[in-house]
Specification:
Elements (H helix, E strand, L loop, with lengths): L11 H9 L2 H12 L4 H8 L3 H13 L3 E7 L4 E6 L1 H4 L2 H15 L9 E3 L4 E3 L34 H11 L6
Antiparallel strand pairs: 1-2, 3-4
């Protein structure tokens, strides 16, 4: 089955899921960000074929999400470290974890907890506004056109919808 690339769609979600949209990639990043960085350990933890793991890791390195680093010379051994770009996927994984905990944790409860080292408390990730600190929800946000927006594959209906919101939006000075 040939996969359709979303890299040229004028949507940041489409472009991100082009790389990050398959389950193995999300689980590889989960493991690396939790400290499992060696190929054999990743293969063992995930139960993934070595061929699929090698392909996903190569793509993550190619995209600048992970970096391969040598940790031993004889015999040569390398491990994978998240780059800055890779570390910025952590909030995405936290959001998926939070949603999964709410809807799929089961009677035993969530399989892991997030502990904030700064305040020494267990926490739940929440998306908040960078300006006022309020929570971001589907009911209190909307999407407006951005400078890279365009109508094309993947945005034939969404593009005009977002563009129409810009035209109806009251100005800040009104």
């Amino acid at each position: 089955m040939t996969r359709t690339s979303l890299a040229d769609v004028a949507c940041s979600i489409a472009r991100a899921t082009d790389l990050f949209g398959d389950a193995w990639t999300a689980l590889i990043m989960r493991d690396v960000l939790c400290g499992i960085t060696r190929f054999d350990d990743l293969a063992n933890d995930l139960g993934i074929s070595r061929k699929i793991l090698a392909a996903r890791l190569a793509r993550l390195v190619e995209e600048g999400v992970l970096a391969r680093e040598r940790y031993q010379e004889h015999p040569p051994r390398e491990h994978y470290q998240a780059t800055e770009k890779g570390k910025e996927l952590y909030p995405v994984l936290l959001a998926l974890m939070n949603w999964g905990d709410r809807w799929y944790a089961g009677p035993a409860g969530p399989p892991a907890r997030i502990h904030h080292l700064t305040c020494d408390q267990d926490t739940t990730p929440v998306a908040t506004c960078a300006h006022c600190g309020g929570p971001l929800t589907v009911d209190n946000t909307t999407q407006l056109p951005g400078p890279g927006g365009r109508i094309g594959p993947g945005t034939h209906v969404l593009g005009p919808l977002i563009a129409s919101r810009h035209q109806r939006r009251p100005s800040a000075s009104a």
